[in-house]
Amino acid sequence: xxxxxxxxxxxxxxxxxxxxxxxYIPQELPxxxxxxxxxxxxxxxxxxxxxxxxxxxxxxxxxxKTCTVKRLMRDFNSRTPGASMCYIxxxxxxxxxxxxxxVLKEYIPSMDKxxxxxxxxYEKLLEYxxxxxxIILVLDEIDMVKDLDELIYTLTxxxxxxxxxxxxxLGISNRLSFKNELDPRSKSSLYETELVFPPYTSNQLQHxxxxxxxxxxxxGAIDSSAVNLTSAITAQDSGDARYALxxxxxxxxxxxxxxxxxxxxxxxxxxxxxxxxxILHETISTLPEHHxxxxxxVSNLSIPGAxxxxxxxxxxxxxxxxxxxEIYEEYSKICGKCGKKPRSxxxxxxxxxxxxxxxxxTTKMSSKGxxxxxxxxxxxxEPGDIIPLVEKNFFK
Length: 396
Description:
Number of domains: 3
Largest sheet: 5 strands, parallel
Number of helices: 15
Structural class: alpha/beta
Oligomer: single chain
Radius of gyration: 24 Å
Order of helices and strands: HHEHEHHEHEHEHHHHHEHHEEH
C-alpha cells in the first residue's frame, strides 16, 4: 500500500493543479473585456446608493459567465460598506425560502438559525436594506429556482416598499429561453438588461490554455501539440473553457498514472472520453425535469434497433435523425409513466432548443417530402450514456 510520503515524493507533471480547476479565478480574464465593461456599467450605480437595473447573463457552459462576475465581486465588495454583491448557487439554494435565508445569514449573523417563517425573513430583509444598503444578488443558474415567479415578486415588492436601499438581481443562466416560462407579471417587473457570452474560438481557447498551462504544469511537462489539440477539440465540440481545462488536467493525470513526465497528444485522446462522460453527467444532473424527459425520449428512440421512422417517399431518415412528432409522442408517454403532465408542443420545441444549445442534440429542418416540412432531431451522445442518468431521476 502506498504511503503519503511515497506519493508526495514522486515527480509530477503538475506545478499547481488548482490553476487548472474550472473554479479558479485568474487575475486576468482574456477575451471578456467587453462583457466585463458592460457589467460594470450596469451595476456601478449601486456604489452611488442608486438601484441598478436587473441584469441577466446568458451563454453556454464554460464561456466565462460566473468567473467574470466573481472576479468583479472582489473589486466591488472592497469599495463601500453601503453596497455589496452576494453570490448564490441556485443548484443548492433552489427555492425562495432557502435563498432568502442564505442571503440574510450572509449579512445578519443572528439569522444563522433555522425555523424563521417567510414573513419574518422578508421583514428582516426590508429592515436591513432600509438602512440605505444596496445588494446585488448574483443568482447563478437562476433557472434552477423552483418558485422563481414568487422570488421575483418578493424582491420587486421589497424594492417598492423601500425609500432607501434596494436589491438587484444579477441572474446567470445557460438557457436563453428560461424567462419565457415566467409569469408575464414577473417578466414585466424585472426591467432588466441582457448580456450574452459567446463561446470561445479555437485561438482564444489556445491562449487561455497556454496561460493556465504555464502556471499549472512544470516547465517542459506538456507538448505544445497537446495544448493545440486540446483547444481544437474543445472549439470543435463546444467552445467550453471548462471542458478544455478538465481535458488538459485529466490528460496530466493519465500521463502520471502511466509513469510519464510529459503529456502527449495520446494522453489528450485518452482523456477525451472520460471527460466527455463527466461533463455529460454534470450537464444532465442540472437540467430541469421536462428537459430531462425530452432528452430521454430522444435517447430511447436513438437506441440501435428502435423503430425507424419513414419519409413520405419511402426513404428512411438519414444520418440518425428522428422526426419531431414521434419524439413528442414518446415524451408524452414518459410523462404519463412518471405522473407528469406533458407541456404543449410550443414548450416542447423550447426544450429542444435549450438541449441543442447545451450540445446534447442537434436539429435541422427537413427537405421536401418528409411529412411536409418538419424538424429533424439527432442525439449528440450515445443513448447508453444518457438513459441510465435520466431514468434514475424518474423511475427510482
